[in-house]
Amino acid sequence: MAPIVEVCPTFSWQQITSWIVVQALQSCYRPLNWLGFIIEWTINFFYLNGGLFRMLIKLLTFQWGRIILPDPTADNFLSCVGALDPRCDLYVDTSRPDKASSTRADALVFPDENVSSRSTADVCVMAAKLAYENPAVVKRVVKDIWMMNFVKFYECWNEHQQMVNTQAFIFTDKPKDANAVVVAFRGTEAFNAYDWSTDLDFAWVKLDRLGGVHLGFLEALGLVSRKHRGTIEKLNTNANASSNETKSHEQAEANANGHIFTPHRKTREEIENAPATSGLAQDIIDDPAKELAYDAITKQVGLILKDNPRAKLFITGHSLGGALASLYATMLHYTGQTEIASKIGAVYTFGQPLVGDQDFVNYANSKLKGKFFRVVYCNDVVPRVPFDDIVMAYKHIGDCNYFNSVYDGVTVQEEPNRNFFGIAKIITMHLNAVWEIVQGLFLITLQYGKQFSESTMCLLFRMLGLAFPGVAAHNPCNYVNAVRLGPFPLRERILGDIADISEEIAMMNDNMKDILYCISQVFFGKSVRPLGSKQLFSS
Questions:
Q1: Any idea where the Fungal lipase-type domain is (predicted)?
Q2: What is the pTM of this model?
Q3: Which residues are catalytic, by number?
Q4: What mean pLDDT do residues 209-214 have?
């Protein structure tokens, strides 16, 4: 009997809305791409030449030979994300509890035995941010600044989009006897219309045993193409075959070992010669110019773990990268990659969109319990799409590690205002955007030091929040600050559904108290008593 595969109906409300949004965005791809290139090139031009003032001096004094022209492939060329938040050092602050206690992230700090530690979260959020940079920058930061072992940067094929548009990189904490393997997926690039169209794509496909999954994310991992329904059915068949083969091996090994079940340990030959999971056509799978993310990364990770049997696997990403990280980790279990899946230390996602329906979430939660950390900052719009409502029926994996605009954090079942839009929220979101500008201008520097000073580009981007608060809140800078300034471990505040209006009001009031307390601390010092039952920024 053929596996059960169900595709989002062609004429459903979701599919029609998705098609209109995707077509509108993709029609803007070339002009938006060119605009992004011009902006990034200009930013780097002034950065490499010491800023506008020094650039003018060079021009006026005819020092034209000293003018540096940016090379987008060079290891000093920053992306827009890099310009927003140029920090690349791993965070060290021994003056505060639960901070990393070493000047470098070696085996003493990362991986920590506690996968929910601040040091582990910091490595993951910085890797998620670094994934936006070009391969040369990624390699330089991993090797020369983090003092870790760079493995490979991936630029993978998306058959539906007919382009290379999925990026990720792998590194380990040490070249030999590694204790950690990290896979970081690139998120939504600001001027990549195809990335935004993937985020706002509402189409789904329901797979046997797994549930409903966002179709655009499956395509980004190189597993299917909606243009060819047969690829979805082939993926389901391949996944079931791989899973059944693994179960057969594990059953045979258990029978030989006194019925003790352990993940099947593949030989190097099995890993290298494993059939593809992807449902795409064989000529695409065999094309070396069209590397497919899921299969390519899984093979590389499998070989690394074979050579480093004590290593844990950490998977991370921001925005679209967070969605791919969560889906990738879940697919390892679904496709029978039990040996790799058993090595997962943690999955950290920052501002990720929703990935699947309730069946998918139930499956993912059963496999990733205690290892999945979903971080959401304040009014970020991306974690609230596609919508979690009766029509679209998307759900989030795991609990939400929610941080407000002064980086106070709690663990909740769902982030407040989970579907984002609502007249009652507009005023508070815009007021909060004003606060974020004031905080970024000088308050955060006064309170925490120069390492938290925000770049001019970051402040300009925050001003966008006056019109579009949810977009400005998606800034990776907010997630780095949340990890470095927020309380660890987070308090479990709300056990029920955060959508309840009374709980939302309670959290909003807490945010206002924290803002007032933050301002009071800066101007009046530690003599000011905390507003409420907790002291946020304890020393």
A1: 290-388
A2: 0.91
A3: 319, 380, 474
A4: 94
